[in-house]
Amino acid sequence: MPQRTDRPSSAAPALWGYAAVRAVGLAVLAVAAAVAGEDALHRLKGRWDSVWYVRIAENGYGHEVTLPDGGVHSDLAFFPLLPALERGLSEVLRIDAATAGLVVSWTASLAAAWGIYAVGERVAGRRAGVVLAVLWGVYPTAFVQSMAYTETLFTAFAAWSLYAVLRDRWIGAGALCVGAGLTRPSAAALVAALGITALVTVVRERRVTARMAVGVLLAPMGWLGYVVFVAVRRGSATAYFEVQAAWGNSVDGGVALARFVWRNLTGPVPLAGVGLCAALALVGWVAWLCVRQRQPLPVLVYTLGVVVVSLVGAAYFGSRPRLMMPAFPLLLPAAVALARLRDRTVVLVLAGLASASAAYGAFTLLGAGPP
């Protein structure tokens, strides 16, 4: 009898491989931080968005920062599940909320790697699933997976929700989507994946099952619930979107991105603009490979949805690779190609990628940021 994908014994190679490449990243950061006289743990749990999550965990919502130009950054821009887990874990384990954030993130990273393996195994086979999980661990901005950020928690929910859909477990998929929706706004892509898949299934089979209906109705409740919470708190139906716009995260259809690329192309160092164009072209090409690979509909819709959400906002350009990181099926074409090679070649390639990712992570975390 073949092993079930959702059992730890089946996923062990993926989990060990993922843990190994992330350990390389942490080791390189520790050494680089020691040489620079910096605190590596502080870089992982005490800077940028991590500080906002800890403040929410400790004091609840209500904190605002007024910028020199008069703009206001509100903590309502941050979804509630991570700070809620930080608060609960800090009380149970008697640790500070920042450390609790790392515990949540590191635990969720293993759950995410397991879910990524499960999806990869179901779509392309066990070997490709293992490689896919490890590739996600050497993604250029994979250092964020070791920070007290929401990327690992969200990806864990998303991967297991997609796996549930692939196994026709609609209620479980919807419940996991609720968790994703309480974690990050990009859960909209996962909601779309479930909704479109259900619609296509209904059209093809000309029937609606009760489980499917419940799952689809559940899916948006996390994201929608938080948007409603902000609306009630601020007394405005569009309050959440106004808060995001104040942070510079409004949806502009990609106008800000196009302007940024154009400024670099016409600036003093046009090579930077050429590099940006090449990077965007690479994303487009990989997305096309996913389509040609005929990935299952929910996986494909989710992947393209996360990519679109990451590109159509007016967010800081440097954060876009991080925002795109939960779109792990983008790595599936590469995982399938690598899985065809000999073990020694695969190990060498992944080791090289792990080293490059670790070096970039240490450089970024010890720099000015933000990631």
From TrEMBL:
Q: What is its main location?
A: endoplasmic reticulum
Name the residues that span the membrane.
15-37, 97-117, 123-141, 186-203, 210-232, 269-290, 297-317, 323-339, 346-368
- How is the protein disposed in the membrane? Multi-pass membrane protein
Where found?
Endoplasmic reticulum membrane
* Keyword rRNA processing appears in the UniProt entry: no
Keywords for the protein's UniProt record, in alphabetical order: Endoplasmic reticulum, Glycosyltransferase, GPI-anchor biosynthesis, Membrane, Transferase, Transmembrane, Transmembrane helix
Pathway listed for it is:
Glycolipid biosynthesis; glycosylphosphatidylinositol-anchor biosynthesis
Q: Does the keyword Endoplasmic reticulum apply?
A: yes
Quote the InterPro entries the UniProt record gives: PIG-V/Gpi18
Under what name is this protein listed? Glycosyltransferase family 39 protein
What's the source species for this entry?
Answer: Streptomyces gobitricini
